Amino acid sequence: MRRKVSAGLADAIKYALLAALVVFFLLPIFSLLMASFKSGKELMRYGISFKGMIPPRFDPKNFVYLVTGKDGIYLSWFRNSVIVLAAQTVLSLGLSSFVGYGLGVYRFKGRNAITVMVLLVMMVPLQILLLPLYAMIVNFKLMNTYQGVILPFMVSPFAIFFFRQFASGIPKDYLDAGRIEGLGEFNIFLFICAPLMAPAFGAMAILMAQQSWNNFLWPLIVMTTGEMFTLPIGLASLLTPYGNNYDMLIAGSCAASVPIIIVFVFFQRYFISGMNAGGIKG
Amino acid sequence: MKRKSLGASLRYVPYVFVLPFLISFAVFYVYPIAASVVMSFQNVVPGRTAFIGLDNYRRIVDQDFFDALRVSFTYTAVTILILIPGPLVLAAMLNVGRRRTNTVFRALYFLPSLVSVVVAGTIFRLIFATSARGMANTILSWLKIPAVDWIMGGSLTAMSLMVAVAVWRWTGVNVVYFMSGLQSIPEELYEAAEIDGAGPLRKFFALTVPLLKPTVIFVTTISVFGGFAMFEESYIFWRGLSPNNVGLTLVGLLFKRGFQQGELGLGSAVGIVLIAVVFAVSMAQLKLFGFFKQEEKE
Known about the structure:
heterodimer; A: mainly alpha; MetI-like fold; disordered C terminus; B: mainly alpha; two-stranded antiparallel ribbon; 73% helix
């Protein structure tokens, strides 16, 4: 009996602690949302404070300004981000699943060597490749183009590895059945195995989309004219020391974050399983 | 196993599958790395590029370089010291008890990692505002500490700011890693320990921590990579111009030399030094954890 009571108490303390931490993680996001209804001038002077965090009235003028202000540049950034996200996600899902499937299903000479290469590439930080990649994009005349942002990330080593792990679990019977039906190897991939890998596509689609949406360093280098900026670059360009753009910056940050948070709420399972693929690595 | 008619096609088909990777590997990884090494020995001026031996490596060693090295090392060390034990304890707490509630907590902790680093930087800039009314300074005032100029106030406040962003963004991610590691530990071990009279603390240190070692090694390794690759947070706070280099990281130095000053050779030399540092630190870390010994045993 006593044991039960003390266990209950321990449980209560545990959940009180965990709940307190939620404040640390969510208060910044919540306060940003609230700040988007305030004037940029006030934020510039006082920052975000506890007192008066919730605005007296929810005036949507900052969000109206997003659409109408500065000749609608925010809309261009949003459009650029959507185009890059769509192209990059579709291309890298297609190519990475193709390669990962090949590595997972077939036994061939060089298979292990290529798998090791994939793992090695996963560990190379992009930052050290920046300068030569930049020189390359300049030579190809791809500065300020969507292709320039997308090309280096067309094939994702992480996704290849994820698909490889997934494909190696597909029973060989499926492939043999396809062969008996007279399907070629590529059609077996397309019509039999790709549908079987649907959960892997789900997990990777979300991961690729999130990475593309938030990608900062590479687009910062490739896109140099205002109307070609993606959202993160555009928002960062508003972060001047004078704070004269805070109206657009804060509302724009909210509008850029909301889509990804909504996707997360609905597809949480896929996010987590995509992440767990990282655990396989270790 | 293989049927004869399939033999011929199966011999080349796998190579068609891996071709996209091989091409992108050659063009976007092997070539740039090679080019980086070559450029680090060159004075890169369009039309008049020339080899200058080790000059770039001699020229990068200056005050900026030591500052960047110090900031990157400190940042990596501090974030690892917080972002391994903290999430490990949280994951252990979330691994027992009410499953549904725990899943909700895990999701809420994960949320900050979804927003872009620019948005995170913007939020933290406003929370850590210079004004005494800013959230961070208000908390300090509760502790009877005078208000601080976080962004321009020196290396301690600058480092706190960068670490705060990292802890906010990455705690939830590491919790997910540790929870997935915990799920591979058989329940029976805990039951056996309970029969032997082990309390929760004893179970944590005698079972959870040692059995999670592979996950700890994995998370530490990616944290070393991530720590030394840090640049964006500092770019958002200071635009590459922090007072006394309080926010200058190694990647920041690469960016400054290569892009802001247009010295591609110097920037490449910084990049090569960065690879060497990351490689050395990772190896030291893996050795410390006995990773190689473990491999030999298997």
